[in-house]
Amino acid sequence: MKNRKLLKRLVNLQNPPRQTQTLKKSSPKMGKRGKQLAKERRQNRLQQISELRKQPIPSHQRWWSSGTVAVVTGSSRGIGFEIARQLAGHGLFVVIAARDADRCRRAAEEIRGEGARNVDWHRLDIEDFGSVEDFVKWVVDKFGGVDVLVNNAGVNYNIGSNNSVELAEKVMAINYFGTKRMIETMIPVMKPSPYGARILNVTSRLGRINGRRNRLGDASLRDQLSRDDCLSEELIDGMITKFLEQVKQGTGPLNEWPQVFTDYSLSKLAVNAYTRLMARILSERPEGQKIYMNCYCPGWVKTAMTNWEGNMTPEEGADTGVWAVLLPDEPVTGKFFAERREISF
């Protein structure tokens, strides 16, 4: 309850009151007019966020220092690069991590070229356990541990109306199992802090359990994933295993799975569920050793993953991720954010 009140207070402080003539929510029956109203609402919201981003963070809310180390995976380009760049701009020490070493180096050089010297880089392939172990060893040797982990690395092989599951196993190996591998391997080296270490997982609203357009068709599974008393790693892994077996046998995707970008959406649903699960487990750690974990959806961003389609720039897409990482020192954990607001899982 305390977390929810804090989050509501933060959002209210950062959002001016709406005008009297509030735009109504759109519905399928509203047609083109409803879509236009929704677009206008969203544009207004993004404009508000743009103005908020220009405002300096008050010194009393800055829990971090130049010695605060933030690792951002998949950060040699796109949203990950923007998250890293913005965090460095706020004064954290940022580690660029991605599969392509040359791109990592160039990304770090670009940030340094903007005047931020607080950046380093190291190759990391989250699909490869050996690469993850080498990376963690390097981080510990160089920095003694990590304060912030942003799991941004991910793939999606579908664009537009395409919904192939031909590479579903690869998608799951990186988006879900790779992210989980990073979390499990990094938790032991996250630094103790009175402010709590932080993990942020970059996911998608396409992975919402009860999403209007893309929800799971299996009502029983939806119910289990929604309930904390049922949620477990075995349940999440079992869902992914069942899906991959159906794909391998040529019987999927079926109606029980998301119908838009099926493999990508399911991988993000799994990460969302895992975020909730781990946030609850990590909240039981003693004071000074707590780790706060949340996830966020950057929106439809113009990057290589979307073939440069989308309606947001990488700078706009990264904003909520940076905002979530830098939330003040009272604990906010197990939440899902988009456009600087909490949304439902």
Automatic annotation (TrEMBL):
Its EC number is 1.1.1.-. Residues 26-36 have a biased composition (Basic residues). One of its GO terms (molecular function) is oxidoreductase activity, acting on the CH-OH group of donors, NAD or NADP as acceptor. InterPro entries: CBR1-like, NAD(P)-bd_dom_sf, SDR_fam. One of its GO terms (cellular component) is membrane. Keywords: NADP, Oxidoreductase. It is an enzyme of class 1 (oxidoreductase). CDD domains: carb_red_PTCR-like_SDR_c. The keyword Oxidoreductase applies. Gene3D superfamilies: NAD(P)-binding Rossmann-like Domain. Residues 18-39 are annotated as: Disordered. Belongs to the short-chain dehydrogenases/reductases (SDR) family. This is Short-chain dehydrogenase/reductase. It comes from Asparagus officinalis (Garden asparagus).
